[in-house]
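User: Predict the complex.
Assistant: Input components as received:
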Amino acid sequence: MNVNLKQLAYRWITAESKNVNITDEYYCQMQDIFEAKNNKMLDILLRCGINENKAYLILAVVGEIGNNSFDHNLGNWPDIMGIFFGYKIKNKKVKIILADRGRGILTTLKQVIPNLKNDQEALEIAFTKKISGRAFENRGNGLKFVKQNIECKKLHLEFQSGKAKIEINSKMKISLADDFINGCLAILTI
Amino acid sequence: MIIYLKKFGDKLMSRSTGREAFLAMSAYLIKDLKKTELIEIDFEGVKVLTPSWADEVITKLIEKFKNIKLVNTDNVTVQATFKILKEYSNLKEIL
């Protein structure tokens, strides 16, 4: 079956809470389910001929994005907890999609930077500055790690939260998104 | 004291598993050790390391002990994690 993962993820994060529906294949309600699926993806990447070092880096990048969703929404999910996690591998081309219906980057970072103006500014800070949405903790390196490795390995990431999106490959570009989403949507292409 | 990280798994990724690992270390491995004791952290067999896990374990060990040695750090994700921790977690001297 040829599933359009992006469309499926988008529908899942934009549906009204009473209409949210997704198969277990793509839904990770808890962090340990996500981690098990991410670990399984490593075996599949290697079996499909992806270079070992690249596969380890992909796993680390995906791990940071997915675990961020859980770490920053724990006990605070607006309605449906958990994340969407799906991937497709064809002829050594990989597309990985992660999405959550959480509070989004702006709301999270506003807890430590109350004067943040908008989603674009929040995304820029999340990917480039040393800051964490969970105050008093030594954390907040995850998305910088994601950016560094995407740029270094010439991968491609499109990440949207609220009304802003960031695109990273060899350079980083932040712009207004066409539509608004509450949580986060990440599309990683290799 | 040598800490073999592979005994905590070959994919060291989330904060929650890192926190558990540090609690286990604190209870069994590094309990009663002096701050000046040489702590060797061995990365052999680690396939994937992330800054989240490392922040909960490596950063805390470096803060707790003065004499830390990191060995078998060739893995690409270990190197990428060190690069980020150097830049953002003030661990330049050791990493």
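Chain B touches chain A at residues 11, 13-17, 47-52, 55, 59, 75-77, 80-81, 83-85, 87-89 (CB under 8 Å).
Let me know if you want any component modeled separately.
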